[in-house]
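Sorry, explain these tokens?

___
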Amino acid sequence: MAKLTIYLPDDLAEAVRASDISPSPICQGALARVVKKMETMKETRSDIDRVAARLAATRNEGADRETAAGHILGATWAREHADLRDLEELADLDQGYWVSINLDGFPSLESYLASLGDDYEWLSHVKQLERGPFTLGFVRGALEVLVAALAHM
């Protein structure tokens, strides 16, 4: 076993001797805990890039799912419910730096979203679609239908 010298303030050394305490096992335990804590912190810091990448991937997966769901609903609305004016106004919104879509200006969109059923029940109370993955997917899906339809008109 290795020998190590530690220094204690005089009053603490005196108290240890007076208490008849053996400092060696206490110091060994304390040092073992501190070393373990330092190793864990070092592992955490060196592993943080992997953790950050994994967490970012889960955020991207959620956004991708929202975008895909919005795209499907936007294309369906455009094919089955929207009129040309609705789609042109949506295209104008998309050309600018829009933040949200006020559904009051799109009555067919509001009624369509309200009728979607259980999976999209939360949309039945929405009065505007905030900019985000779902809304961006929705707009892109609807505008793809508009572009395809205009090519055939």
About this structure: The beta strands are 100-102, 128-130. Residues 23-80 form the longest helix (58 residues). The CA atoms of residues 15 and 67 lie 68 Å apart. Residues 66-151 form one domain.
